[in-house]
Amino acid sequence: QVQLVESGGGLVQPGESLRLSCAASGFTFSTYAMSWWRQAPGMERELVASISPAGRSTNYADSVKGRFTISRVDAKNTLYLQMNSLQPEDTAVYYCKRPGLTPIWGQGTQVTVSS
User: At 55, is the secondary structure helix, strand, or coil?
Assistant: First the structure.
């Protein structure tokens, strides 16, 4: 069964950090590009960051460049998103995604940034 399970979300204050994890199973993780997306209340889901197979290249939304870092450990079938200098506008449900004819999404993890 192909599955993605996110974890690591929570409530933090502005300026703090969080690291999200996405555990993959049921497919050959190392052969897929992977990405993180987020969806704030009342907003469309947006791409946050993506990473190629083996992590050779990464891309970021302008809004998170310099603050977020996407990475992967293929030996652990796990995708990460290190989020630093979090701001209230980063509040959203964060999802990891595997692309394909039938994209696979995780269930999401809530990140709330509030003082």
Answer: helix
Work out the average pLDDT over 81-103. Answer: 96
Q: 76 with 89: CB under 8 angstroms? A: no
The one-character DSSP state at 54 is G
| Percent residues over pLDDT 90 in the chain | 96
Helices (H), the chain: none
Q: What is the arithmetic mean of pLDDT over 32-40?
A: 98
Maximum Cα–Cα distance across the chain: 41
Whether residue 19 contacts residue 72, with contact meaning beta carbons closer than 8 Å, is answered with no
Q: Span 99-108, mean pLDDT?
A: 94
CA neighbor of 92 nearest in space, from 36, 38, 48, 14: 38
Q: How many angstroms separate the CA atoms of 111 and 19, rounded?
A: 10
Instruction: List residues bridging with 83 in a β-sheet.
Output: 18, 68
Dist. CA 38–CA 96, nearest whole Å: 9
